[in-house]
Amino acid sequence: MLPDILQLAHIAQKSSRTIIGLMSGTSLDGLDMAICALRNNGKDTEVKLLYFETASYDDAFKAEIRKVFAQKQVDFQFLAILNVLIAEKHALFVNTMLLRLGIHPQEIDLIASHGQTLLHAPRSQHQQDHYPNATLQMGDGDHIARRTGIITISDFRQKHLAGGGEGAPLALYGDYFLFSSPDEDRFLLNIGGIGNFTYLPANGHASDVFATDTGPGNTLMDAYARRLFEVDYDAGGAQAAAGVVDQGLLEIFKSDPFFQLPFPKTTGPEQFSTAWADAIFAQHPKGQLNPFNQMATLNRLSAETIADALKRVQGTGAPKALYLSGGGNGNATLVRHLKQLLPDWKIKSIYDLGIPADAKEAVLFAVLANEAVAGKPEPDFKLGGLPYLSMGKISLPN
């Protein structure tokens, strides 16, 4: 038996595993890296976050990704090159972090790499009924494993597709294992490029748990911040706070059919693009809105579509609690809108559940990697309407 296979078997049988979760979202701001200690599996999973940081992407690297990001037509040769380039960049970030912390790669059991989403195409979005749901993440696990010397689990979303899902949101699994509570109906809202939440009913019934996208999170606000103000994002929502929401255009934005689709549903920047928003802004009867009013309207769009989606969930009758994570957690204007729209809800940061808001998704992929090697299949167990799935492809260093 190959030494790497023996090592994998040893890792699966350990009482505790040290796993680095890697997450790069549609905002393209950088690579989140969470070093986690995990014990047990399933609902008995225990996670301790040992260290977290975000390695920022430089402007040149962001520009390379944007050449193909959410594009239907791309340079196929460049796409193939980018698959390797992203993996090597992520491996370099990991190696640099470990060297700086004085941690030897042999002290790490696994890397859980989400990769960089380049295209998300569920059937509801590509509108070709005779073709399946699809999604594409780049940053090949073999290259990460080889460059770091650490067994790497990657490409998690394909198994979800193969099991009948849309490949997203995958936070459902880790959220259910880590954060369920009998005291309240919990809604774990991640405001990344796209907004999504996991519903965890107080009754604990797995059949009632689901995760869904809500629509734009930061993706449009970030794109317009770059275009209008030449900054990467609207820090704290200050630009939006300086403007006035155009209610007429907001209603046109909200009339998009996606917002009326049943749960669960997924989407991406492919659907909620600047071209989509530009076409609606162009309908303003008095010409283009000023930049601050555009930002205010987009901010309110994210807030209202998130709140509208949350209010569609009937719940169990227990108190409703909303826990925020992702970049939007730091957008004070967006959070203020949510508190106004959901006055009877308890609204807090996911930090109150023991995980920093920016680290949550990286931690959850570490949980998925832990399940891939140490999970125990339960044939009758379903979550989000799908059977229990072990997600992720295993890449060995040698």
Total helical segments: 14
Structural shape: globular
Helix proportion: 25-40%
Query: How many angstroms does the end-to-end distance come to?
Result: 13 Å
Beta content comes to 15-25%
Structural class: alpha/beta
Strand runs, count: 14
From the alpha carbons, calculate the radius of gyration and give it in angstroms. Answer: 21 Å
Task: Detail the poorly predicted runs.
Answer: none
Q: Mean pLDDT score, rounded?
A: 94
> Could you give a short account of the major beta sheet?
7 strands, mixed
Spell the H/E element sequence: HEEEHHEHEHEHHEEEHHHHHEHEHEEE
Describe this structure in words.
The chain is an alpha/beta fold and 398 residues long. The chain contains 14 helices and 14 strands. The chain is globular and about 70 Å long.
Which structural traits does this protein have?
single chain, 398 residues, alpha/beta, seven-stranded mixed sheet, five-stranded mixed sheet, 14 helices, 37% helix, 22% strand
What does this entry show, briefly?
The chain is 37% helix and 22% strand. It has 398 residues and is α/β, with parallel strands linked by helices.
Secondary structure layout plus pairing:
Layout: H1 3-13, E1 16-24, E2 30-39, E3 46-56, H2 59-66, H3 76-101, E4 110-121, H4 123-126, E5 134-138, H5 141-148, E6 152-154, H6 157-162, H7 171-179, E7 185-191, E8 194-200, E9 210-216, H8 219-229, H9 238-241, H10 247-254, H11 274-281, H12 291-311, E10 320-325, H13 332-341, E11 346-349, H14 360-374, E12 382-383, E13 386-387, E14 393-395
Parallel strand pairs: 1-4, 4-6, 7-10, 10-11
Antiparallel strand pairs: 1-2, 2-3, 4-5, 6-14, 7-8, 8-9, 12-13
Helix pairs in contact: 3-5, 7-14, 8-12, 10-12, 12-13
